[in-house]
Amino acid sequence: MAEGALDALQTRLRHTFADARLLQLALTHRSFSADHNERLEFLGDSVLNLAVSHLLYVRLSELPEGDLSRVRANLVKQDTLHQLAVKLALSPLLRLGEGEARSGGQNRPSILADALEALIGAVYLDAGYAAAQALVHRLYESVEITPRMDAAAKDPKTELQEWLQGHKMKLPAYRVVGTLGAAHKQTFDVACEVVEMGLTERGIGGSRRAGEQAAAAAMLIQLKARGTKAK
Fold this sequence. Notes:
This protein is mainly α. It has two domains: 1-152, Ribonuclease III domain (Ribonuclease iii, N-terminal Endonuclease Domain, Chain A, Orthogonal Bundle), CATH 1.10.1520; 154-231, 2-Layer Sandwich (Double Stranded RNA Binding Domain). Helix content is 55%, strand content 10%.
């Protein structure tokens, strides 16, 4: 990858990496190398949620917890992250395997969203939480954040989380049970577990995030079949 292109990305991020290897790793898809960005994505997902939660806590000070959760779900969902990744012009910088590249992986929303989360995780490791939080806040400068966003439809993970919180239960646990298919057309088999009720449901999706949503949807069906209703 051309050094100039990475320099330009760092200018857009307004962060210069002390460890340039982290930047390169964040842009590396699993189809390209065994040393890929999924662990950074896992880390970045948590940093992103905390930074966005803080942003909403300050900016939407009148909203109750349930509405804040729905606004956050809109801001951290794949579609939003994909749009932010496109604005950063990440597509041509992604390191993809031949098969994934031929099938249009550089423009695949799930891959771009995951790479953006990996970049947030990379900044966190490179310079700490304050730098990562500042990056997240810069990324969302162009996004209109208003209380009206709480009217958006809930995704299954958010709906399940709110149901469990309303019944004073712990949040569900998600884990990848297995992966299916070739590297460039992989699907993720994900389990969703509600420990207090002894329930586990499975879901399959084209990304880890999509698999979690499918598993959460299956869990909601199970809860409703037991005569309970999500809020």
